[in-house]
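Write out the 3D structure for:
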Amino acid sequence: MHPILIGLITFIVVFAGYSYLNYRRIKHFSKLPDSEEISHLTDKNFNKETAKGIVLIDFWASWCMPCKMMAPVLNQVAENVHGQARVAKVNVEEFQNLAGKFQVRSIPTLLLLKDGKEVNRFVGVKSKDFLLKKIRNA
C-alpha cells in the first residue's frame, strides 16, 4: 500500500474516533442541571432581577452546542460569586423580545450588567477564570 494512502486512512480513523468521543462528551452537557444559584429571567422579572448589583446574563438556546458547553462553567461561576454578583439565564427561544432588546445576534452571548446597565458583553464560550475576572472588575 502507498504510504500516503495509509496516512490518509489513519487520519480518517483517528478523526472519526475523536469526533465520536467529543460528541459523547458534549451530549452529556445537555443533561447537566443548572446550579440553584442561577436564576431564569423572563419578561416579567427581568427588570426587577437586574436593577441592582452585578448580574451576568447568559442568552442561550436548547439546541446550541456552545451554550451547552457553557452550562458547567456558569454553574461554577454562580457558586463562586456569592454576594458579589448573580448569574442568570435567558432562553432566546422563549423570550425573543429580551434578545432583541439587547441586540443578541449570536449565542451564547453573555452580558454583564451593573445596576441594570450593560457594562460588558462576551460572545462565545468563555472560561470560568475569564468570567470571574470580568465580574471582579465590573
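Helices lie at 3-29, 46-50, 65-80, 96-101, 128-137.
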